[in-house]
Amino acid sequence: MDKYRNMLRKRIHSILSTWQQQQTVTGEELYRFYHNIKGTAGTIGMHDVQHIAERELEVYVNQKEEAFSREDWQPIMNDLLFFFEDAVEKEDESTKEDFSEDLPLVLIVDDDIEFGSFLKDKLENNGYQALLALSGKKGIDLFYDMSPRLILLDYLLPDVDGMEVLKQILKKSMREFIPVIMLSAYGSEDRRNRALELGAMDFIDKPLIGEGLLPLINNRMRFQHRIISSIMNDELTGVYNRRFLMQEIKRSVSRLERKSIAPFSIVLCDLDYFKKVNDTYGHSIGDKVLRAFATSFKDVARSEDIISRYGGEEFVLLLPNTSASDALKVTNRWRDVLESRPVTTESGDITIRFSAGVREVREVTHHEEILKEADFALYAAKAQGRNKSLIYDEELMMEVANSPIHIIVVDDDEVVGAVFAEHFKQKKQIANREVIFHSYITGESFLEADWYEENGYYFLLLDGMLPDLDGVEILQRVRATYPKDKILISMLTARSEEEEIERALNLGADDYMVKPFRIKELGARIEGLVERVYTR
User: Fold this and answer.
1) Residue 507 region, left (φ>0) first, then alpha (ψ -120 to 50), else beta?
2) 393, 289, 384, 394: which is closest to 338 by C-alpha?
């Protein structure tokens, strides 16, 4: 298959070379190009290229009469070429460490034809394609037309100085991580420093001794591949990363503005109780869970669907041509897959569950606003018990946003209750929510009160020593009766024994505060806990 892949590579470069000389390219040309690429790439197993071509066909199918400038089509072409290169590299890496099957392109810019030809033959006999430019101007043209993977650039050239060539290609080479190795028969310290300072990756003296150049080129190629992979892929899970996601959302919104694609949906997913997985099983098992979650998406995804790791245990789906209701169905099918495939560990199986917020995009919206609203829906899903997906809806979100925070103090010292009441009366809001304060002087009066409401969020401050019930007993009853997600509990006591602290935390307390205290400091601590837990 490699023969046909390289033929396809050459055909793409040939077409691009022609287009680079034109002011515009018609939609008809772009449509035919992607049509041919789709068929060939799919046939020879280059599915990343096939998927890009399928996506671009949808863009140009109704715009065949329009003319497109280089700014319109070049960014997508760069993506295609990257995936083209990457698909070959990944297959080759499974069998060989070098690039002998991949044939990446090296551009040699040197006016010494004998030396240049020697290098060209050397490279082509060791798994590379090579182009030779005998002048600086020709080298610049080939660099922009052919997009080489690495450049060997002579310091002295007959028309344009090698440093000037470096300046003219620097922006693109830095952006695309294309290594530039400068060569010179007179490698003075000043020349070396100037070249490296400007942006060359290496500076090598002529004549070249032994076989040192090839290992260096192989090393730089591998380094380039790792950098590009790290830019586009999450190292742990192998799916796309946040940077790639942001580019794709912006691109989708831009196409939506040109009315070249149908509405799409963004789904922000968060693994439920993932911190407990790390705390219980360790971070290595936590990593295993993240990988299992990410890779399982392929069982419900279409070829054009994208999954990216957004950060920590959060992932984002970009689902083209998908309504919010259809996106909801995708997440439900995904849950079925996860339920049927628990992660096996020595300590038992872990069933992965997640909450999700869905935001359908039908009109031009800033990418940060899209993600913010998906995050709002995700927050609502967690507030309603987790392991579910909710669609962003302003009415629902308003209801969630208006849920109050109840601060409840259970302490037989009425002065403590009065001090807290005064503090939170002045505060009025925490985490952009209304604060409602309650106090009780006995445990029984608190437990018998009708204090819990479904739409509320709570912070309980329980005194460890009460006249009727021990504060820890109240803690146990609350944890056994009410949802943990909506209730934060902190113990308040004059005792500071480690055993007491450990017992309370093991039974479900979120924090432990020791008397005496300063109300402003304690109030700030409570507010900080509420902010972290009840806001995203």
Assistant:
1) alpha
2) 289
Chain segment 81-110, per-residue pLDDT in tens: 665 554 444 433 333 333 333 478 899 998
**Cis peptide bond prior to 215, omega within 30° of 0:** no
- Determine contact, residues 134/111, Cβ cutoff 8 Å: yes
- Spatial separation of the C-alpha atoms in residues 410 and 104, rounded to whole Å: 71
pLDDT tens per residue, range 379-408: 888 877 789 999 998 776 676 666 788 889
Q: How far apart are CA 49 and CA 76, in angstroms?
A: 11
Spatial contact of 335 and 301, defined as CB atoms under 8 Å apart: no
Q: Find all residues with CB under 8 Å of 93, minimum gap 6, and list them.
A: none
Secondary structure (3-state) at 406: strand
Instruction: Give the mean model confidence (pLDDT) for residues 444-448.
Output: 92
Euclidean distance between CA atoms 172 and 402, whole angstroms: 50
Between the CA atoms of 196, 202, 208 and 210, what dihedral angle is there, to the nearest 10 degrees?
150
Tokens (6 digits) for 368: 């940060």
β-bridge pairing 511-514 and 202-205: unpaired
With a cut of 50, say whether residue 476 has pLDDT above it. yes
Give alpha helix (H) positions in 387-470.
394-401, 414-427, 443-448
- The model's confidence at residue 41, banded by pLDDT at 50, 70 and 90, is low
What's the whole-number average pLDDT of the chain? 83
391/359 Cα distance (integer angstroms): 6
Bridge-based pairing state of the strands 306-311 and 314-319: antiparallel
